[in-house]
Design goal:
The chain contains 14 helices and ten strands. With 334 residues, the chain is an alpha/beta fold. The strands form three sheets. The protein has a four-stranded parallel β-sheet, with helices on one face. It has a four-stranded parallel β-sheet with strand order 8-7-9-10, with helices on both faces. A two-stranded parallel sheet has the order 4-6. β1, α1 and β2 form a beta-alpha-beta unit. The chain is globular. About 2% of the residues have low confidence. Bound molecules: iron/sulfur cluster (SF4). Iron/sulfur cluster (SF4) binds next to α3 and α13.
Amino acid sequence: MTTVGIPRALLYYQYYPMWKTFFEHLGVEVVVSPPTTRKTLAEGAGRVVADTCLPTKVFIGHTISLLGKCDCIFIPVIRSLKSKSYNCSKFLGLPDMTRAVVPEAPPILEIEVDINQGKRRLYQEIYRLGRHFTWNPLKVREAANAAWQAHLEYRDLMWRYGLTPPQAIDNITGIRQTPEASLNHSDRPRATIGLIGHAYLLYDEHINYQLIQRLQQYDASVVTPEMLSDYATESAISKLVGRAYWTYEEEVVGAGGHYLENHADGIIGVMAFGCGPDSLMMDIVHRQATRQKTTPFMCLTLEEHTSETGVITRLEAFMDMIHRRKQRGEAICV
Ligand code: SF4
């Protein structure tokens, strides 16, 4: 049986159940790289130029960790998912970059997704991908339909039950029961913290120093972009910027706008050092928070040299301030 490797990085958090379903319907075994470690990051960072963004370095590290474990590696090129909205350039050249910096990698399976080219082109791309495993177009179509259904169920699980992508993936795959989130330290009321940023920053526990668990330890209920419906995200975007020009910036602007509008007790924006789209989009949310003057906002920028102690100190100070405001009744928790 052919084995396809999927790096646990970048778009893995958005689409893993869909990709897994597609390949498994075509009789392919799927293997995912293990969670990020210091070694993963060091190996990835060692292959690319220094100013490459942290998530791309992590992605290359995960690709390296799949060497010898699979027959090919799946790296999709997601150009655009909505009309006239484009993805960050790092995603567009990911397969070529991977081939260049990891020459010992097995063959790379690509699919190009660009809604601006029309649905017909998308279907051709899906068949082109499926033809690596079967010549029967009906089987490819069945696999694609099952994959789309799996994706809808995954999204539904997250926004309906307030699950993070790793929790929803655990739930779907049944690999591990997600432990009870709460590690409450005290009797004080919990604060609602909107954590905004790309999934590959929010849910990679190595590069963000277990941000979500730490916030829970500081008596916070954490809400993230994936816990919102498409409608809530899009309506917040249209109020803040009219329309998003970058495909995955909805996670920043839409969620930030929504949690500001609904008076979360605080918002933490997480971005990668050197990320162009984030530096613009996070600034829009930050400015809106400053204008509203109701919700404290903190920005955390991550890179491989970010100090864990620095992150902890900033989180502690932020959460202390949030809890003091709550005790004085200065914020309304939704
Ligand atoms: S959006 Fe930013 S963090 Fe994400 S891949 Fe592009 S440059 Fe890197």
